[in-house]
């Protein structure tokens, strides 16, 4: 009544103005409401802390009913290639394992063949901000163009919290046991991919506790000068509804040293290490050491080191000297045998045991007072963890990971050092294939020295260390049978013999077994001492020793080849070679992409004799860096492992 009375008092013109104003406001409000529902996520990025009013989910689901299903895999399939203008990489990662279920596995060797399957998300996931792909409710009539339109128009950033200049490749090595949603549309769908080293792609993400839920949008301004053949693409589910499991197909990702170098450079330029909650004098010492390493005096001739083996011999030498002078390590006494403090010195996983034995017995680096330590070592054996706790044929390793989580919770409660950095100044050394899974989440910020150095399984180049997998036949004499024939007496072009683990080795035999007299490519050799000696003699007599991956990316043949002075030929996409941060693997090895197996002989024959001789010399020179000794020697495998842990910590630390 009050409003009506006031209106009657107004003049004719004033009434018309008032009605027009009210109508305009009402129209604007209705228009805004009509736009809000389908574009809530986009509007969210404009509001503080991403807060928007809740609304009915039906509109959200309707937007996503444009494709029947999308199956995606790891973005490192693109390597570190960049994206052309208006292209995009969409990624959602939920760093939470789904039940710990395991696919097929070779029980005898403890080698894991996990399927890396995406699991559909439920309604609760949608409420928490997950985008659901691969849902049976999605329209079956959608075309591939709809998918492109859907990816371009519907998927938007879930948050705008930057992660300290992270790159696409920072997140590309997220673990494979959670839900991975990372893919790129094929070029013929209208989105081109280019490969350009100069670009620096940025991303935004949001992290909450153990669950890392991210939708990442990447774009670049590069001209499409070179189209990259995609290793991973959106795979449309067939009308039958059957999906190929990841364990049934090769992972498609980076395979070249060039791509790995780019990742390393990016991680060095933009460290992702968490800043300590409070700084210490030891942190400042490490920061000072970094400055000294970066300004290291140039080394021209060194009697102990062979310069061509190293990325930068001057920096390596200075870093090693500083490590010897100042590094102090505290070894936790917590944990009981046999999982803790009981090294295994023989067999396939001996590297973790030898390091444990030599580290715990070391008097130069180890301190009894944790307040004096720069780094903290957690001395557990991933091999003994599997041996002790894994229930045979159970296909479930959740209890193994829980055991290590309980351990980290214990030391975090008992000591204040873990909580200071969330474990960033702690390290572990583990050689079993399952170690990446067992140490996920609760040890995610630690420096991990792993034999299974797989960039698609959580290995972070520049933070983690690729641990050489050394098959030790004699714990008393780890150097037995060391050495090989000189180059002039190596008449076999290439040699391989071994079990048919994984998908790659059968392909190798398909193309080269009994196909060429110069290519000695075999399956498993007959058991027995004579067979072992025959295997060793073949490696000692071959120019190149083929090192294909098995179930996982790592293989003891890489170190065996160096041990017997044979140039290693690594065929294992996504594998980061040992001590990658300091060694130049191009100086003493060949890395062949898995897809190039049919051209293997041509690749090897195309290498000039002079180049082969240089590489073979490099193998002999690098050999001392891959040897275990009962009493550690300077620059040996123990010291190289510790140095890489130290070196990566130096280049990861950040202070306020």
Can you put this structure into words, describing what you see?
The chain is an alpha/beta fold. It has four domains: 2-36; 55-253, no CATH class; 259-474 and 634-650, no CATH class; 487-626, Glycogen Phosphorylase B (Rossmann fold, 3-Layer(aba) Sandwich), CATH 3.40.50.2000. It has helices at 2-9, 12-36, 40-44, 58-63, 123-127, 144-153, 168-172, 257-269, 281-294, 313-326, 350-360, 382-389, 398-414, 417-421, 435-438, 504-512, 529-540, 557-563, 600-605, 609-622, 637-650; strands spanning 70-71, 90-94, 105-106, 111-112, 179-183, 235-236, 329-331, 366-367, 375-377, 426-430, 447-450, 465-466, 492-496, 519-521, 542-548, 567-571, 590-591. The strands form five sheets. A six-stranded parallel β-sheet has the order 8-7-9-10-11-12. α11 (350-360) links the parallel β7 and β8. α9 packs antiparallel against α10 (313-326). It is found in: Golgi apparatus membrane.
Q: Topology, pairings included?
A:
Layout: H1 2-9, H2 12-36, H3 40-44, H4 58-63, E1 70-71, E2 90-94, E3 105-106, E4 111-112, H5 123-127, H6 144-153, H7 168-172, E5 179-183, E6 235-236, H8 257-269, H9 281-294, H10 313-326, E7 329-331, H11 350-360, E8 366-367, E9 375-377, H12 382-389, H13 398-414, H14 417-421, E10 426-430, H15 435-438, E11 447-450, E12 465-466, E13 492-496, H16 504-512, E14 519-521, H17 529-540, E15 542-548, H18 557-563, E16 567-571, E17 590-591, H19 600-605, H20 609-622, H21 637-650
Parallel strand pairs: 7-8, 7-9, 9-10, 10-11, 11-12, 13-14, 13-15, 15-16, 16-17
Antiparallel strand pairs: 1-6, 2-5, 3-4
Helix pairs in contact: 9-10
């Amino acid at each position: 009544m009050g409003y009506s009375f006031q209106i009657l008092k107004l003049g004719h013109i004033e009434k018309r103005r008032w009605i027009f104003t009210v109508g305009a406001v009402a129209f604007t409000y209705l228009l805004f409401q009509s736009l809000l529902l389908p574009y809530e996520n986009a509007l969210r990025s404009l509001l503080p802390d991403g807060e928007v009013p809740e609304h009915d989910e039906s509109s959200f689901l309707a937007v996503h009913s444009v494709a029947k299903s999308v199956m995606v895999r790891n973005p490192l399939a693109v390597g570190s290639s960049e994206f052309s203008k208006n292209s995009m990489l969409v990624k959602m990662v939920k760093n939470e394992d789904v039940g710990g279920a395991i696919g097929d596995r070779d029980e005898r060797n403890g080698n894991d063949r996990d399927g890396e399957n995406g699991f559909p998300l439920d309604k609760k996931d949608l409420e928490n901000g997950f985008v659901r792909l691969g849902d049976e409710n999605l329209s079956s009539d959608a075309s591939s163009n709809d998918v492109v339109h859907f990816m371009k128009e519907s998927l938007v950033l879930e948050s705008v919290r930057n992660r300290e200049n992270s790159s696409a490749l920072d997140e590309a090595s997220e673990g494979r046991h959670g839900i991975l949603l990372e893919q790129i549309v094929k070029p013929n769908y209208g989105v081109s991919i280019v490969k350009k080293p100069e670009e620096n792609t940025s991303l935004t993400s949001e992290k909450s506790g153990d669950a890392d839920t991210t939708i990442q949008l990447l774009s670049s301004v590069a001209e499409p000068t070179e189209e990259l053949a995609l290793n991973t693409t959106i795979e449309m589910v067939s009308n039958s509804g059957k999906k190929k499991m990841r364990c049934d197909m090769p992972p498609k990702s980076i395979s070249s040293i060039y791509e790995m170098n780019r990742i390393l450079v990016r991680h060095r330029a933009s460290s992702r290490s968490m800043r300590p909650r409070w700084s210490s004098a030891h942190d400042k010492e490490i920061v000072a050491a970094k400055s000294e390493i970066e300004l290291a005096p140039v080394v021209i001739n060194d009697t102990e080191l062979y310069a061509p083996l190293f990325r930068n011999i001057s920096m390596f030498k200075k870093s090693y000297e500083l490590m010897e002078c100042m590094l102090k390590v505290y070894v936790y006494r917590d944990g009981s045998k046999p999982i803790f403090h009981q090294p295994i010195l023989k067999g396939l996983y001996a590297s973790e045991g030898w390091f444990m034995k030599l580290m715990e017995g070391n008097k130069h680096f180890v301190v009894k007072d944790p307040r004096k330590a720069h780094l903290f070592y957690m001395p557990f054996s991933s091999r003994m963890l599997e041996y002790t706790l894994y229930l045979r044929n159970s296909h479930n390793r959740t209890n193994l990971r829980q055991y290590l989580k309980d351990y980290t919770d214990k030391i975090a409660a008992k000591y204040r050092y873990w909580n200071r950095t969330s474990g960033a100044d702690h390290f572990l050394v583990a050689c079993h294939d399952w170690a990446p899974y067992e140490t996920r989440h609760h040890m995610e910020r630690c420096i991990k020295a792993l034999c299974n150095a797989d960039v698609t399984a959580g290995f972070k180049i520049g933070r983690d260390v690729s641990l050489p997998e050394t098959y030790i036949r004699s714990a008393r004499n780890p150097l037995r049978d060391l050495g090989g024939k000189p180059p002039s007496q190596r008449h076999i072009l290439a040699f391989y013999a071994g079990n048919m683990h994984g998908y790659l080795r059968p392909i190798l035999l398909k193309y080269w077994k009994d196909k060429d007299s110069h290519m000695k490519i075999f399956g498993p050799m007959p058991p027995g001492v004579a067979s072992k000696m025959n295997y060793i003699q073949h490696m000692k007599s071959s120019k190149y020793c083929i090192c294909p991956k098995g179930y996982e990316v790592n293989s003891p043949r890489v170190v065996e080849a160096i041990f017997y002075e044979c140039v290693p030929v690594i065929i294992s996409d996504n594998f980061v070679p040992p001590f990658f941060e300091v060694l130049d693997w191009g100086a003493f090895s060949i890395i062949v992409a898995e897809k190039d197996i049919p051209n293997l002989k041509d690749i090897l024959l195309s290498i000039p004799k002079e180049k082969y001789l240089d590489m073979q010399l490099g193998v002999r020179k690098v050999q001392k860096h891959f040897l275990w000794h009962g009493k550690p020697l300077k620059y040996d495998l123990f010291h190289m492992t510790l140095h890489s842990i130290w070196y990566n910590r130096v280049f990861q630390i950040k202070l306020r």
